[in-house]
């Protein structure tokens, strides 16, 4: 899916593994305060291929959809966005997670990617609700969610183990209507 904001989303493919690895290496210190501690195998080509393979399998089983965020001009991967933990039935919900290369922060790419991902979630995948949790001190990510129309729903105490510490997360959500 393409955006007027110079980016597009597409599901990650095996050919993207080396670009994704490069992105993660260059941003490792930048991302770490907001991510789980990962085994060193994650930072290998094989680790990225496993992640992409899991994403492909997740889409085939309608459990998750993982997209690369690409620049239109160069097709360079500048981030990743995912809908995971998809619940069907009477819930029709997914969890949203994303990251953008530090070099491209502050240019509106994250907000554009979230907006594009929501169109896919609601119009193509048929979800009713998308939820995102964000560490309260991650103000740029909160701004992205608010600009994309998410509403603050509350605080989940000790929600996820991030960078070795159980962290509270502000819960944001948006529904199809």
TrEMBL record:
Domain N-acetyltransferase, first and last residues per copy: 7-177
PANTHER family from the UniProt entry: [RIBOSOMAL PROTEIN US5]-ALANINE N-ACETYLTRANSFERASE, GNAT FAMILY, PUTATIVE (AFU_ORTHOLOGUE AFUA_3G00765)-RELATED-RELATED
Gene3D superfamilies: 3.40.630.30
Pfam families: Acetyltransf_3
Protein name (Swiss-Prot/TrEMBL): Putative ribosomal-protein-alanine acetyltransferase
Similarity-based family: Belongs to the acetyltransferase family. RimJ subfamily.
Gene Ontology CC: one annotated term: cytoplasm
One of the record's GO molecular function terms: protein-N-terminal-alanine acetyltransferase activity
InterPro entries to which the protein is assigned, alphabetical: Acyl_CoA_acyltransferase, GNAT_dom, N-acetyltransferase
Transmembrane segments: none
Key words, A-Z: Acyltransferase, Transferase
Key word Transferase present: yes
Keyword Zinc-finger part of the UniProt annotation: no
Lineage: Bacteria, Bacillati, Bacillota, Bacilli, Bacillales
PROSITE patterns: GNAT
């Amino acid at each position: 899916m393409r955006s007027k904001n110079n980016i597009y989303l597409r599901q990650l493919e095996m050919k993207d593994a080396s670009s994704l690895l490069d992105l993660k290496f260059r941003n490792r210190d930048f991302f770490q305060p907001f991510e789980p501690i990962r085994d060193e195998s994650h930072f290998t080509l094989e680790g990225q291929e496993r992640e992409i393979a899991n994403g492909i399998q997740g889409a085939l089983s309608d459990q998750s959809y993982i997209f690369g965020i690409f620049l239109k001009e160069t097709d360079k991967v500048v981030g990743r966005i995912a809908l995971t933990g998809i619940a069907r039935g009477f819930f029709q919900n997914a969890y949203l997670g994303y990251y953008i290369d530090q070099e491209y922060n502050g240019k509106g790419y994250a907000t554009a990617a979230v907006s594009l991902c929501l169109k896919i979630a609601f119009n193509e995948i048929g979800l009713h609700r998308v939820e995102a949790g964000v560490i309260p001190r991650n103000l740029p990510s909160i701004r992205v969610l608010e600009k994309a129309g998410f509403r603050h729903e509350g605080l989940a105490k000790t929600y996820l183990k991030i960078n070795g510490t159980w962290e509270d997360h502000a819960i944001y959500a948006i529904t199809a209507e």
